């Protein structure tokens, strides 16, 4: 019974250790507050868990390698996210413990401001008869394999000045499309597959490309500015809504374009991840507990060979 209690306490300390690490990581993610860093932190969590398990199983060489990887990854993350860590240390030094759990939203752009930037840029491009093609994700990210060419990565805030600059005929990226995800311009110069439908002769390559990508991918809409006429169109599920005024375009974008910004809090995703890890850890602990209990019961039922030996009994 005493060995069973020691076994339970030993594994309980292991689970508490993992839980505290997850709680610390949760605080760090709330402070960072950027979705683009989520996968990096998830990888760091996997490294820490692997190092803890290898140390628990006494795999000395693997534990040595993973521990050094964890230290190197921690130093790299502290360097990459130095401004966030500085804010964390400042709040910790001022004793603002509870404010650590409040994600910073000072850089979170409002959905209507993002739409205003897009509409203003499209309006200027239309008046100057500069061709443009914008892809707006409405829910989950688009797989790059749906593009003919994924384009050049930008990851910049949406602004009318940047959009107008990209589509100037003197730039190298003006021929492709601009991919917008939430409040960020993810890429420019994206080449899209053309629609195979029979289209009007008045429609150019940009319109056919907008129809093609929205036929293939449902979770996006496309805004097109004609270079010849300056007319504005909106493509959705392979159909074109044209011509549009800037006010009508804004109305349609407000109804269809949900701003899923790059700086959304990532804490809900971490809570889901923590629930999955804790569930698996508890199931593993229960299996180890059952195996330990069965092993103790089998050892108690197994006959003692010394008791059957008459020589030993006489001794």
From TrEMBL:
EC id: 2.7.7.85
Compositional bias annotation for Basic and acidic residues: 306-315
- How does the annotation summarize its subunit structure? Probably a homodimer.
Q: What is the role of the protein in this entry? A: Catalyzes the condensation of 2 ATP molecules into cyclic di-AMP (c-di-AMP), a second messenger used to regulate differing processes in different bacteria.
* Cell membrane in keyword set: yes
Q: What is this protein called?
A: Diadenylate cyclase
Ribonucleoprotein as a keyword? no
Q: What keywords were assigned to this record?
A: ATP-binding, Cell membrane, Membrane, Nucleotide-binding, Nucleotidyltransferase, Transferase, Transmembrane, Transmembrane helix
Broad class of enzyme this protein falls into: transferase
Q: Where is the DAC domain?
A: 82-246
> What Gene Ontology molecular function terms does this protein carry?
adenylate cyclase activity; ATP binding; diadenylate cyclase activity
Q: What is the lineage of its organism?
A: Bacteria, Bacillati, Cyanobacteriota, Cyanophyceae, Leptolyngbyales
């Amino acid at each position: 019974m005493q060995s069973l209690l020691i076994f339970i306490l030993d594994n309980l300390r292991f689970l508490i250790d993992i839980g505290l690490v997850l709680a610390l990581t949760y605080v760090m993610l709330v402070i960072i507050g950027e979705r683009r860093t989520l996968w990096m932190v998830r990888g760091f969590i996997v490294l820490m868990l692997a190092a803890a398990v290898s140390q628990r199983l006494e795999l000395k060489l693997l534990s040595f390698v993973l521990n050094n990887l964890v230290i190197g990854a921690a130093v790299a993350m502290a360097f990459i996210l130095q401004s966030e860590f500085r804010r964390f240390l400042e709040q910790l030094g001022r004793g603002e413990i509870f404010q650590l759990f409040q994600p910073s939203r000072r850089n979170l752009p409002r959905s209507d401001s993002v739409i205003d930037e897009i509409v203003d840029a499209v309006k200027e491009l239309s008046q100057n008869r500069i061709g443009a093609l914008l892809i707006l994700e409405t829910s989950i990210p688009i797989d790059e394999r749906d593009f003919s060419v994924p384009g050049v990565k930008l990851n910049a805030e949406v602004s009318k000045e940047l959009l107008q600059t990209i589509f100037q005929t003197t730039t190298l990226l003006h021929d492709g499309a601009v991919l917008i995800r939430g409040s960020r311009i993810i890429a420019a110069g994206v080449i899209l597959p053309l629609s195979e439908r029979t289209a009007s002769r008045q429609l150019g390559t940009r319109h056919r490309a907008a129809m093609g990508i929205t036929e293939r991918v449902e979770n996006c809409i496309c805004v097109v500015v004609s270079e010849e006429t300056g007319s504005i169109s909106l493509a959705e599920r392979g159909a074109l809504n044209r011509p549009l005024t800037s006010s009508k375009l804004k109305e349609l974008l407000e109804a269809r374009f949900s701003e899923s910004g790059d700086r959304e809090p990532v804490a809900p995703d971490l809570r889901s991840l923590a629930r999955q890890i804790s569930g698996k850890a508890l199931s593993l602990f229960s299996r180890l507990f059952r195996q330990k209990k069965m092993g103790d019961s089998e050892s108690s039922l197994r006959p003692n060979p010394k008791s059957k030996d008459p020589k030993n009994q006489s001794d």
